[in-house]
Amino acid sequence: MTAPVQTGAQPQATVPGATRIHAAFARAAQEGRAAFIPFMTAGYPTASAFPAVADALLTQADLLEVGIPYSDPLGDGPTIQRASEQALGGGTSTRHTLQLVKDLRARHDTPVVIMTYVNPIYAVGPREFMRLAQDAGVDGLILPDLPPDQDLEIADLAAEHGIAVTFLIAPTSTPERVKLVAEACTGFLYAVSVTGVTGTREGAALGEVPAMLALARQYARVPVAVGFGVKDAETAHQVAQVADGVVVGSAFINAVQHGQDVGALAAGIAEGCRKD
């Protein structure tokens, strides 16, 4: 198994959300594992059923990623797209998502990060969105379609409201792009393991991931998590050997869809996040 790549840079928590996120990664590292970051679309399978699903994930999670349902999620595969459509059809909006997160944070201390495209933020209004997110207890934002060099307003407003930001890199990212993104992240850096969308890969062969992480760690002062294609304990274990965190999404959407025990699946994947 490939040894994890180490970085001499230390995370620099500049906002409260970043402090909590970095602490979660640090606790996992101290316990000899990568941080486990499950994902669930807000309002899926229904608004009333979502809290129980999220609670089950939070029993195992180091961080929970909650997706705002969006009608045009370009980075998501068919599984998460269908979940978004179902949640939107059930009435889950951006504001409702933030209320669901607020309810979760009232019951759990685990950090929560929101994955959202920029359009939902602008639909609410960036400043109002950040105010609502801060009030809900959101610790970080994952922004898959926001290049950090094109719109500083959202990142600046997030910092103003105590919220960390996470941007994405992929195997196709140039060294210049990796440097730009890595230096802009204040929560964690999200490394996409393959080119494409979520939930479409059969396995988690590491491929270019170790080299991508080695490059990212030359510049990042935050933990580096890997997502896309992780679906079970075995694939999580592969990724955990090289990453600080493991993100799993479509597997949980599928489990909910088929009436499977989400808590049991989360427990198994969390165990797989241990480092050799």
TrEMBL record:
Annotated GO MF terms: tryptophan synthase activity
Annotated pathway: Amino-acid biosynthesis; L-tryptophan biosynthesis; L-tryptophan from chorismate: step 5/5
PROSITE patterns assigned: TRP_SYNTHASE_ALPHA
UniProt-annotated catalytic positions: 65, 76
Reactions listed under catalytic activity: (1S,2R)-1-C-(indol-3-yl)glycerol 3-phosphate + L-serine = D-glyceraldehyde 3-phosphate + L-tryptophan + H2O
UniProt entry keywords in alphabetical sequence: Amino-acid biosynthesis, Aromatic amino acid biosynthesis, Lyase, Tryptophan biosynthesis
HAMAP family: Trp_synth_alpha (MF_00131)
Function of the molecule: The alpha subunit is responsible for the aldol cleavage of indoleglycerol phosphate to indole and glyceraldehyde 3-phosphate.
Protein name in the entry: Tryptophan synthase alpha chain
Organism annotation: Deinococcus aquaticus
